[in-house]
């Protein structure tokens, strides 16, 4: 929840000079303006008066509310971030003559700057706890704001000055937690893979042996063999299914590119707005991936109607995201928060989408149509679908979604907590290497569980596995969103603005993971199903 610095009655220049923001900075909620502090290189100052002013009653109330809500200011000097609190609260119950809390406003800021040669390496800001004024009561107050700056030489190199902002994630305690989470996930996935090999593959080999023996009694025990004429029947709503495949692969491509940018050092903490800019541009440019995969998948089963599939791919994620952003923007405007997007920024995003995303989506769809190929099923389809026998509750979709979601979520729960703390607590980001490893583990585990449960589903002669494999894989995102709600109630966040932004953007992120994991789950199951029926046919 961020607001413009001069929404509070600080000393302000006349006129205020606003920094020209980039697209990413606007999306990030940055609204930077010039300050009255004059911090010239190597020029030390002590107790310099910024301004003297008389705070009116309503201005005192504004400062008191900001102090009560723990607001802090953020500045930049030579592109280095600086933070400082506005005031402090003292518990009045500790003093017998006082009742209630006492609110104090800091009136002096102490800057400590470090330099190497002719370059600034580090700068910190401290609010002097001895220079305060009491703003507990609604009365007019005369305040004099001052500041000081001390310059000190350091041996730290200019090239490494941003390292301190990512060093917090490598502190011993957090480092041990990351390694514990990593080792726990590795052991879990190895045990699960071993269980799959021992149980599923062993049973599968027995089934294949029975199929090749020629014994009719043994052959009847292989349930999945009897649905060979229905297992490759494409599902209902093939256009929507194709769109899910296309958008899931598009979002997976975006995540992979973001990891590459992070490893190259292009994306790093406090690089203002670059992540937001990257997301907008990457989504537009990777629309060609969504169009191509959607069209090529649809055209494997039907030459007609691929245009509708591509259209659905264009709105499947962008549509709900747009509605969410517009609702949250309305909330931010009503609060006067800097998260509110100006009309011009909204039009720029629409222009980028129309200029790049839409044409590339159509181009990808056309390429997928030009290079289309027919789906080659290992076995011929029956004319009419086979009736599915009644299934117990533990073999139906909700139970299987719960199993996959719970097991996959348990491997990433600790890292997910650190990720939420980074996104919503403005903590230092988790190193991209650890996030990448955990992401790969999540994909592999989703594929393994999907294959195992698909095999169990086919064994009970249930051939409608296409959509179910998508929901099984995407169920992890449901647990991620449920955990975000738990995270919110455990945090210090409050108010409708923070609640709406937290739930809205977390829902958008979890929906993206639902599409990514759903497409991975289906692809893994399809490879497995084609493999086992091809082996049966060859035997």
UniProtKB/TrEMBL annotation:
Keywords: Endosome, Golgi apparatus, Membrane, Signal, Transmembrane, Transmembrane helix. Pfam families: EMP70. It is a multi-pass membrane protein. Its main location: membrane. The chain crosses the membrane at residues 179-201, 240-268, 280-298, 310-333, 339-363, 401-421, 433-458, 470-489, 501-522. The keyword Transmembrane applies. GO terms for biological process: protein localization to membrane. One of its GO terms (cellular component) is Golgi membrane. It is found in: Endosome membrane; Golgi apparatus membrane. It comes from the Eukaryota. Belongs to the nonaspanin (TM9SF) (TC 9.A.2) family. This is Transmembrane 9 superfamily member. It comes from Citrus sinensis (Sweet orange).
């Amino acid at each position: 929840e961020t607001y413009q610095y001069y929404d509070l009655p600080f000393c302000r220049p006349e006129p205020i000079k606003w920094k020209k923001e980039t697209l990413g900075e606007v999306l990030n909620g940055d609204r930077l303006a010039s300050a009255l502090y004059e911090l010239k290189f190597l020029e030390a100052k002590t107790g310099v008066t910024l301004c003297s002013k008389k705070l009116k009653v309503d201005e005192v109330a504004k400062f008191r509310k900001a102090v009560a809500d723990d607001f802090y200011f953020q500045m930049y000097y030579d592109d280095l971030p600086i933070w400082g609190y506005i005031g402090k609260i003292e518990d009045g119950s500790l003093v017998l003559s006082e009742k209630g809390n006492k609110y104090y406003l800091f009136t002096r800021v102490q800057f400590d700057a470090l330099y190497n040669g002719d370059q600034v390496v580090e700068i910190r800001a401290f609010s002097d706890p001895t220079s305060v004024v009491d703003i507990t009561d609604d009365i007019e107050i005369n305040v004099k704001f001052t500041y000081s700056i001390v310059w000190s030489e350091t041996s730290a190199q200019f090239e490494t000055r941003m390292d301190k902002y990512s060093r917090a994630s490598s502190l011993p305690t957090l480092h041990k937690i990351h390694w514990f989470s990593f080792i726990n996930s590795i052991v879990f996935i190895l045990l699960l893979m071993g269980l799959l090999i021992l149980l599923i593959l062993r049973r599968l080999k027995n089934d294949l042996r029975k199929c090749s023996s020629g014994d009719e009694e043994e052959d009847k025990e292989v349930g999945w063999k009897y649905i060979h004429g229905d297992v490759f029947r494409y599902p209902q709503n093939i256009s929507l299914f194709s769109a899910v495949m296309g958008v899931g692969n598009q979002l997976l491509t975006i995540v992979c590119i973001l990891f590459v940018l992070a490893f190259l050092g292009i994306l790093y903490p406090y690089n203002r707005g670059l992540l937001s800019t990257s997301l907008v541009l990457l989504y537009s440019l990777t629309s060609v991936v969504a169009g191509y995969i959607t069209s090529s998948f649809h055209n494997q089963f039907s030459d007609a109607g691929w245009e509708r599939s591509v259209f659905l791919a264009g709105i499947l994620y962008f549509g709900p995201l747009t509605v969410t952003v517009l609702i949250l923007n309305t909330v931010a405007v009503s609060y006067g928060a800097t998260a509110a997007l100006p009309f011009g920024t909204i039009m720029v995003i629409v222009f980028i989408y129309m200029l790049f995303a839409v044409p590339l989506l159509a181009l990808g769809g056309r390429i997928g149509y030009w290079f289309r190929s027919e789906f080659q099923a290992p076995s011929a389809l029956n004319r009419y679908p086979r009736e599915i026998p009644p299934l117990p509750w533990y073999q139906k979709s909700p139970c299987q979604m719960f199993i996959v979601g719970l097991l996959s979520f348990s491997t990433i729960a600790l890292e997910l907590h650190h990720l939420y703390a980074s996104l919503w607590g403005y903590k230092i980001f988790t190193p991209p290497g650890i996030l990448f490893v955990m992401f790969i583990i999540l994909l592999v585990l989703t594929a393994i569980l999907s294959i195992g449960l698909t095999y169990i589903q086919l064994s009970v002669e249930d051939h409608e596995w296409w959509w179910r494999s998508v929901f099984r894989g995407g169920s992890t995102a449901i647990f991620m969103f449920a955990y975000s709600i738990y995270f919110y109630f455990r945090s210090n966040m409050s108010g409708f603005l923070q609640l709406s932004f937290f739930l809205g953007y977390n829902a958008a992120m979890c929906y993206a993971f639902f599409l990514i994991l759903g497409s991975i789950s289906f692809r893994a199951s399809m490879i497995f199903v084609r493999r086992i029926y091809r082996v049966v046919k060859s035997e």
